[in-house]
């Protein structure tokens, strides 16, 4: 109200009441903040490591700080999720606690997240010049619901100690069979139950794949280890495979103690994996996530590269992440990753996305020298004892897997 404006006699008392309500509102917000900080301090004080030192888990910066609205599409979508899932924090730290919600919060896509999001045409300035795979990803990046075509709901009835979850493509029959005969052999290994599943999407004629459905149905009936969803299995949809697997795990295999997730062209020393895991303490096992960790990385801006990401889509650096060729984590953490994944916008590079989800949990992957997702030096690739010391190495053909596995299991091989 302007100072010289005449007062309406009907609102004189109402003006005083407005001031009172404003003060009460400010007081309530301050009290809520105090309570929240006290709870956080209490939780962090009661979190201690094995040596008795108290640990304070500091949430990521985005959790605490409401940044200026980004010009990049993915970042804006993530800012929206941060606001939605942290309304008290964001409203309390805004410059005016009683201001209306920011207008961009309402700039959502279609009500059905699996319908094309045509905002991208206007909100991404170079959309029309992006590769087709990128355009497709952006149009449907909010869709996470796809039906299961092939399921194995009872594969974890005998609670596995280790679940081997292998990303594969429909035509890769030879890779899957080589894994079944070597490092992915299901059953009991070193007195621990091991279960293997292969994760598949759908291959389409538009992507120049032949129709192999009849052969896949036979394979599924014979081995009972295939899980397939009805979505287009492409490089940019590997993130979709990640979140769909976590959902499947939460429903059908939530008591598995550990998961090794990798590509169908990695070679895994399963014996060494089991040997590492069986001696872990409960504290170490809870947040376990190890692999070949990549740090201080960011998006490639060269459109000719496989991992190209334009500035119009993403800005900033990547959190630490483990190379997607293969990594090892606990079943407990898998359930938490599934829950937190709803708070992280889908990103077209799956291992980076998993790193983002870990970061959202206040965690980071741990580097282990036994994971070689970028292979080993060529001069060592034919040395049997090298594979005895490794956990996982990327880039092996089915024929090479069948050659390497005896080097792992034959006791007469002396690697002293």
TrEMBL record:
Predominant cellular place of this UniProt entry's protein: Golgi
Gene3D superfamilies given in the database record: 3.90.550.50
Keywords on record: Glycoprotein, Glycosyltransferase, Golgi apparatus, Manganese, Membrane, Signal-anchor, Transferase, Transmembrane, Transmembrane helix
Stored InterPro entries: Glyco_trans_31
TM ranges: 24-45
One GO cellular component term: Golgi membrane
Top-level taxon of origin: Eukaryota
Cofactor(s) the protein requires to work: Mn(2+)
Topology term for the membrane: Single-pass type II membrane protein
Membership in a protein family: Belongs to the glycosyltransferase 31 family.
Protein name: Hexosyltransferase
Organism classification: Eukaryota, Metazoa, Chordata, Craniata, Vertebrata
